[in-house]
Design brief:
HIT family, subunit A, HIT-like, Histidine_triad_HIT, EC 2.7.7.53, transferase, 5 strands, AP-4-A phosphorylase
Length: 146
């Protein structure tokens, strides 16, 4: 991929402290960066942020888009392997942070918001860094196997 333009106000571009407010790093992938979403009312919720600072899917080349969606699917397979959800929701909004990213949100039958769309950031379920790291490590292992 070509050299990327970064927005100094964008958490996904700058990573570090800005993204740490809501995401725990899992790994760098070919097309972007994977994070455990800190709000874990849906156990296993993650975010895959594209490495380019673009707002829309149409800002990617066909190849970039196809590679990104292949990795969204790979992450979803890892989430299924590790957390065994009954359903996974996918969300790409970007109304406040204009950086292309996908929320990959496991849902569990009988669990919170089963049968409906997920709330973006309820703040109800926050974990310790050790718990986030355990999830991240389980996902890193699963990504090697899927």
């Amino acid at each position: 991929m070509e050299d990327m333009v970064k927005d100094p106000n964008c958490a996904y571009c700058m990573q570090g402290e800005l993204v740490a407010k809501f995401g725990y790093p899992v790994c760098e992938m070919k097309t972007g960066f994977l994070y455990v979403f800190k709000e874990q009312s849906k156990k296993g919720r993650v975010v895959l942020a594209h490495r380019k600072h673009v707002s829309e899917l149409i800002d990617l080349t066909d190849e970039e888009r196809n590679d990104f969606f292949a990795e969204v699917a790979q992450v979803a397979r890892a989430v299924h392997k590790v957390f065994q959800p009954d359903k996974v929701n996918y969300g790409a909004y970007g109304d406040t942070g204009h950086h292309l990213h996908f929320h990959i949100v496991p849902k569990y039958e009988g669990g919170e918001e089963w049968g409906g769309t997920f709330e973006m950031n309820s703040g109800r379920t926050m974990l310790t860094d050790a718990e986030y790291e355990k999830m991240a490590e389980d996902l890193r292992q699963a990504l090697k196997e899927v």
